[in-house]
TrEMBL record:
The record marks H220 as: Important for catalytic activity. NCBIfam families: aden_deam, PRK09358.1-6. This is Adenine deaminase. The keyword Zinc applies.
Length: 326
């Protein structure tokens, strides 16, 4: 359609994408074969059929299992290269991607193998597609504070390739306050800070992300809408929210795309962006997310341009680089 062609042509930045969540079933099988890893599925179709989730934890269980095929530097490079090829096709010119080092170090894969592979993929994408990218190291919030500190120590030799720390995994029962000290230590190392908050968790978790983690950007943030004072604060502080429509649908954060709050967020004056979260698991890359939200909520071209513009304004590019894109 006209609108999908318009979306496809819009230059955009992607700010909320877990690289492990871009592992397509085809690559999962290829890596399983290459590494001699058993996976509990007979076919690509069987894998896709298993991607039916009733909440965040349901998804996380299968997502961490899928990541088990990632073993070598080449695996991480191939994973990143596949994402960037796909993102380039969607008009993404800059991507700030999450990775979950603890998912790998806890399986005996070294932090350095992960970093060498991902940064090789990033450098190739810059050369092949002209896509710039930055890495965001996420702490797994279901693990403890000491494990997060140990991960931050592993990251110290790589600070020149890491832009920010983030917080992901099981939100309920793992409030941001659990990681206040490790985020403070990350800030002291010069890292920026983001956190998943208000995806399943209450508005109080968003307040904690702002007050205790001092985040520069908020991932999801949907449940902020339940707290008018919080909305006002997010607008006043020009906080960027990285919203993920297809993820919200697949993880039952919304019951139906027709109920998605993206336009209410825009109307409230929030600096919202559209992102793919875990594209291989949720059925689409960034343009599919724009298209699904636009169709369900009747977004017009002006709103789509605002969303794309917000993606650069909310990025960690320099002011000069932002100005070149907006
Ligand atoms: N890890 C990967 N995707 C996630 C999400 N949407 N929420 C929390 N943790 C995640
Ligand atoms: Zn996410």
């Amino acid at each position: 359609t006209d609108l999908s062609a318009f979306i496809a042509r819009l230059p955009k930045a992607e700010l909320h994408m877990h690289i492990e969540g871009s592992l397509e079933p085809e690559l999962m099988f290829a890596l399983a074969r290459r590494n001699g890893v058993e996976i509990p599925f007979d076919s690509v179709e069987a894998v896709r059929a298993a991607y039916s989730f009733s909440n965040l934890q349901d998804f996380l269980d299968i997502y961490y299992q899928g990541a088990d095929v990632l073993r070598t530097e080449e695996d991480f490079r191939d994973l990143a290269a596949a994402y960037f090829d796909r993102a380039a096709a969607d008009g993404v010119v800059h991507a700030e991607i999450f990775f979950d080092p603890q998912t790998h170090t806890d399986r005996g894969i070294s932090f350095d193998v992960v970093m060498r592979g991902l940064t090789a993929g990033m450098d190739e994408a810059q050369a092949r597609h002209g896509i710039s990218s930055k890495l965001i190291l996420c702490f797994l919030r279901h693990l403890d504070e000491e494990a997060a500190f140990a991960t931050l120590r592993l990251a110290e030799p790589w600070l020149h390739r890491i832009e920010a720390v983030g917080l992901d995994s099981s939100e309920l029962g793992h409030p941001p306050e659990k990681f206040a000290r490790v985020f403070e230590a990350a800030a002291a190392l010069g890292l920026k800070r983001v956190a998943h908050a208000g995806e399943e968790g209450p508005p109080e978790y968003v307040h904690q992300a702002l007050d205790l983690l001092k985040v520069d950007r908020l991932d999801h943030g949907n449940r902020s809408l339940e707290d008018p004072g919080l909305i006002e604060r997010l607008v006043r502080e020009q906080m960027t929210l990285t919203v993920c429509p297809l993820s919200n649908l697949k993880l039952c954060v919304v019951g139906d795309m027709a109920e998605h709050p993206i336009d209410r967020m825009l109307d409230a004056g929030l600096r919202v962006t559209i992102n793919s979260d875990d594209p291989a698991y949720f059925g689409g890359y960034v343009n599919d997310n724009f298209g699904a939200a636009a169709e369900a909520r009747g977004l017009d071209r002006e709103q789509l341009v605002t969303l794309a513009r917000n993606s650069f304004l909310g990025s960690f590019l320099s002011e000069d680089e932002k100005a070149a894109h907006v």
